[in-house]
Amino acid sequence: MDTNNSVDTGRKKMDQLSPYLENDMGQKATTDNGLKISNTDDSLKLGERGPTLLEDFHFRQKITHFDHERIPERVVHARGFGAHGFFQLYESMSEYTKAKFLQDPNLTTPVFVRFSTVVGSRGSADTVRDVRGFATKFYTEDGNLDIVGNNIPVFFIQDAIKFPDIVHAIKPEPHNEVPQATSAHDTFWDFVVNTPETAHMVMWLMSDRAIPRSFRMMEGFGVNTFRLINAQGQARFVKFHWKPLLGVHSLLRDEAQRLSGKDPDFHRRDLWDAIEQGNYPEYELGVQIIEESQEFSFDFDILDPTKVWPEELIPVKIIGKMTLNKNVDNFFAETEQVAFCPANIVPGIDFSNDPLLQGRLFSYEDTQLSRLGGPNFRQIPINRPVVPVHNDQRDGGHQMRIHQGNVSYFPNMLAQNSPSPADEAEGGFVHYAERVDAHKVRARSQSFRDHFRQATLFWNSMSPTEKAHIVDAFHYEAGSVKNKEVKQAVADMFAHVAPELGEQIAVGIGVNRPPSVPANDMKASSAALSQENTIKSARTRKVAVLVENGFCPLAVNTMLNELKAAGAVAETVSSSLAPITGKDGTMLEPNKSFVTTSSLVYDAVFIPGGANHADAISQNIDVRLFINEALRHMKTVGAADEAAELLLMTDAAGLISNFTGSEGTPWVNQGVVLIQGADNLQPYCAEFINQLSGHRHWGRLIDYPITAA
Ligand code: HDE
Fold first, then answer.
1. Pocket perturbation via mutation, ligand 1, pick of 215, 340, 371, 372 by most ligand atoms within 8 A of CB
2. Per the domain annotation, does 64 fall within a domain?
3. How many structural domains is the chain composed of?
4. Site residues for ligand 1, CB cut-off 6 Å
5. 371 among annotated binding-site residues
């Protein structure tokens, strides 16, 4: 926990949780009844070789508890990872809302965040192509507020009643429960091609947004439209955004798929390690606000969850920052048992009639009843508000409160009407009195009918690299579909987004060119949608320094020091974990070996010089694979002195074919950074770090996935 902040830093929630922390260190083992146990290795038997006796209460309790250790996983967002932190406002938002936590910039509010994938089971891999959940619980002075968002700002469907359909379609197919944690199969694409409102979100799902580099490097979006209400009762429409201070960055498809095997925990490990190292993830909270009078001023319906509010039209006002500064003490107790619900709001925030949101308001409470086993899940420590709870709700499974007295109803005289409702001035929640005058119909508004224009806006906003990645994703996803008609329909449907997209999909998945369709009139683009325009930084990036016997200690030390100063994280990697000797006799104990790690988990690779080192490295097939893979995944690769020439051996892409030596100054081409004959490596390290902060070097193989039609 960060104690340097002058303000609360989320302490209130930690103080509340601390009485529940258990530490068994140095204690004697007992049963759940507190009876000390003398032996927990042998069951009670009739003779040493005889049958076990039913009377063995310790055996029965131990096994029974174990038998019931699991609870149902979330029906969606089953795999997730959480952390504690705090939120602090930059400036008072009192003009827009009376929410207490948005009034005073000196106040900090404890938060708990859970990131997740949507489709896979609890044990599935982190780096699959999927939407990421980004759910935040604010423990405010008005009670808990949940912003249950995703890292994609739009949703597949417009009405909550279709949620079971989309989820059934995207989950593993029911006859054989294959494939796990992916949309690359027939039922998902069958649903998509029969549901044009999915077009916009599918574009995001096929984009790099769906394979984030880190939870720390993705945006969050509340998706649904809410309201802000100020103390005068004025309402405005609002959408919530989280903007990561490290920028928005992604993996490559191939990298993400390989990582699923090499490190299925890649994202949770990354978040955990960053927090343990003090590299606290930070996200700014932004709001887009639309006046009620402007409700009908746009070429999209502001209640339609398949639409963004383009940031160039409605700017995101940055209002505060969230810092995640503490890992959980226990995954199950906190991350697994946390229960989010978009209906958890506070005075100053209210709902809109967004038909997806309206359904969500019901679903989350409902699902917790089976997942967490009854109506008292709000009493689980992680779910408790930091303010007192008083009401006449009683009993139910696992009731933790011991309510005193004989009154559990309202109104009453016996307890002087306690607990009594609070009026608005006392902080009582009063729903926004929206006037609605309409027929009761099972129908959808005409204003929700445009399904392609914003999908085209997204496509128009992508850089050539991002477009190439989208085409590549379609080739993999729709190419994995078995049914030829569905495949054809995918190419045909996305020709409505952009004819060239439909054609490029068709080429890659072996179906006919889509028939020409009427041109979509969306010509605009939005710079905010492209990751090319994001923040770039070397901070917290991970670098592998490859070392064998004979390495140059000066080069290694300079690089490690400079990386540390830039806020990057370095690990030495060698053939084994045994200590190695540098060219001047310096000993070094490598952090990782080629068996225990892989190029996949790093953002860059550096190979120091040393004559014998170069020999040792040149004979090592693992080194070649490591470098080749890093080059293929567009990562920064650096080498010094003798090692620079070795790169020629792995230079399949011809990146250094024109390297003729560097005479003491750094030589750079597409993220390959070489140096020879320098007395001082600091300028070289600065260039290496500069290249590292570029994230990936897309120019390296820019033309590879797009095939000419
Ligand atoms: Fe969810 N969603 N959802 N969802 N959702 C759940 O609630 C649901 C939607 C989101 O880390 C479930 O507690 C419906 C949009 C996140 O614990 C369930 C609809 C967005 C999480 C549920 C949606 C989300 C969930 C399953 C369509 C982004 C994980 C377990 C109307 C704004 C929260 C649970 C966590 C979880 C229902 C659509 C985000 C079944 C009916 C849109 C981040 O209640």
1. 340
2. no
3. 2
4. 74-77, 80, 114, 116, 133, 135, 148-150, 155, 160, 163, 223-224, 339-340, 356, 359-360, 363-364, 367
5. yes
Q: Mark which of 354, 383, 412 sits at the end of a domain.
A: 383
Q: 693: which residues sit within 8 A by CB, 6+ positions away? A: 536, 537, 538, 541
Residue 21 has a CB neighbour count (10 Å cut-off) of: 11
How far, in Å, is the centroid of ligand 1 from the Cα of 154? 13
Nearest atom (ligand 1) to Cα of 77 = 29
pLDDT value of position 9: 56
pLDDT tens-digit readout, 574-613: 999 999 999 999 999 999 999 999 999 999 999 999 988 8
User: Where does 265-397 show beta strands of DSSP type E?
Assistant: 282-291, 317-327, 349-351
pLDDT at 106 (0 to 100): 95
Distance, CA of 322 to CA of 96 (rounded, Å)? 20
Which CATH number characterizes residue 593's domain? 3.40.50.880
Q: Is the separation of the CB atoms in 605 and 544 below 8 Å?
A: yes
Question: Does 2 have pLDDT greater than 50?
Answer: no
Nearest-angstrom CA–CA distance, 76 and 5: 36
List pLDDT tens digits, range 338-374: 999 999 999 999 999 999 999 999 999 999 999 999 9
To the nearest whole percent, how much of the chain has pLDDT over 90?
91
Give the CATH number for residue 235. 2.40.180.10
Question: Mean pLDDT in the chain?
Answer: 95
The first and second tokens of residue 128, run together, are 């699959």
Distance 90 CA to ligand 1 centre (A): 29
Q: Which tokens is 395 given? A: 């009993």
Alpha helices in 336-383 (DSSP H): 355-371
Between CA 185 and CA 519 the distance in angstroms is 29
In a domain, 445, yes or no: no
For residue 192, what are the contacts with CB-CB under 8 A and spacing of at least 6? 169, 198, 199, 202, 490, 493
Nearest C-alpha neighbor of 116 from the set 130, 96, 97: 130
276: CB partners within 8 A, 6+ apart: 327
Kindly state the average pLDDT of the residues 103-131.
98
pLDDT digits (tens, 9 = 90+) for 158-200: 999 999 999 999 999 999 999 999 999 999 999 999 999 999 9
> Is residue 114 marked as binding?
yes
Instruction: Please report which confidence band the pLDDT of residue 702 belongs to, taking 50, 70 and 90 as the band edges.
Output: very low
Q: If pLDDT is split at 50, 70 and 90, which confidence band does 540 have?
A: very high
Q: Whose CA is nearest to atom 27 of ligand 1?
A: 160
Q: List CB contacts of 108: < 8 A, sequence separation 6 or more.
A: 5, 7, 8, 9, 10, 86, 87, 88
Q: Does the annotation flag 236 for ligand binding?
A: no
Task: Check pLDDT > 60 for residue 440.
Answer: yes
Residue 347 has which token pair? 């005075």
Which residues form the domain of 692?
A: 542-703
Q: Is residue 436 part of a domain?
A: no
Please say which residue of 348, 383, 418 terminates a domain: 383
Residue 324 within a domain: yes
For ligand 1, the distance from its centroid to the CA atom of residue 76, given in whole angstroms, is: 7
Shortest-distance atom of ligand 1 to CA 115? 11
**pLDDT tens digit sequence for 238-284:** 999 999 999 999 999 999 999 999 999 999 999 999 999 999 999 99
Cα(338) to ligand 1 centroid in Å equals 13
Q: Which of 148, 332, 335 to mutate to test the pocket of ligand 1 (most atoms within 8 A of CB)?
A: 148
- 363 CA from centroid of ligand 1 (Å): 8
